[in-house]
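Throughout our pipeline, every protein is held as a single compact record rather than as scattered files. The remainder of this section carries one protein's record, kept here as part of the documentation.

===
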Amino acid sequence: MDSAQYIAFAKDVLGLEFNDIQYLITAFTHRSYLNEHRKTVSEHNERLEFLGDAVLELVVTEYLYSNYAEPEGILTNWRSSLVRTESISAAALKLGYEPLLRLSRGEKRGTDRARAQILANCFEAVIGAIYLDLGYDAAKGLIDSAILTTFAEILSSGSWLDAKSRLQEVAQSQLGATPVYKVVEEVGPDHDKIFTIAAEVDGKIYGSGKGPSKQAAQQVAAEAALKKLEKK
């Protein structure tokens, strides 16, 4: 891909004209791409991602603080729902980031979960690139249009609650019972364990999940249980 494609993307999709398009190109460059292009590429997007993550959190925090009077705990949960991987990777996908990603051949064949994380990281890196090249207001404009516009749906659906909290609400509403989480399996050495957890409601397993901690596996199990209950 040449710089013309990124210039066109910036103008047609982001509505921006970069002073230095290399910022945007770097934002789309995954670490793995350097391994196959060491002679022509010297920088990947992780530093821009670091910066963009901070700008994203500031803009979202400022928006919530200025528009809502809820206590800190609720505002924190709302912010988390807006900046989590699923939210920002969905925004990147909707804006057409994926074809512009610069990845190694191996990463191009990666899992859907890995690709979602790469897209989320790229979205943050693009914010960092915009901030450096065009300033805070330009970066805020992208966040406003791509992220904050989803907040009404997040509120109405209740997805700002973490999966375990949402499952508890749904289970109590539909079944009149509280979810219970049980360890099904633990594998691996102490420093690198993988837990499998089952989410039970009223004695029936509705979902299971794996994770590097019991808490992480419980969240995955709760998500699986929610999908099953929401189909009922």
About this structure: The chain has two domains: 3-157, 163-230. The mean pLDDT is 91. Residues 163-230 form a domain with the Double Stranded RNA Binding Domain fold (CATH 3.30.160.20). The chain is about 60% helix and 10% strand.
